[in-house]
Design a protein that fits this description.
globular; 138 residues; 3 helices; 22% helix
Length: 138
Amino acid sequence: MPEQELDLEELCEANPLYLVLKVREAYLDSSRDCVRLVANPSQDYAWIHGGVHGGYISALTILASELAASSSVGGDVLLVGVESSIIFLRQVEVPNVIEVQSCVSYRTQRIIGVESSVRCGGHEIAKGITMFLVEERG
């Protein structure tokens, strides 16, 4: 099954970080438990030297990872972020389109691990791993 575009307005209502981080497109490939977010940060997201701040890239990666993990579990569960790490490979100037692809790489009954790749201008600029604890609500 090819990736399907997600309703960005619905995502923004559920989590305002999609708006804050300037996410413009969101896609789900449910057959692979993968999500792809496309963002276009403005100059407001640059640090003093003009590049995109690492905190922005980290937050975007966590947001994509959470969407991939939640799409893989369904039902009424709570995902608790346990750990997130990111390796920065190169600097990105703003404005520029940034894409994050996050895929569930492993899952047990209680833990979901998600690997992410962040790209800009045809180059991989960062890699990330995020782990979530799965808890039943109530």
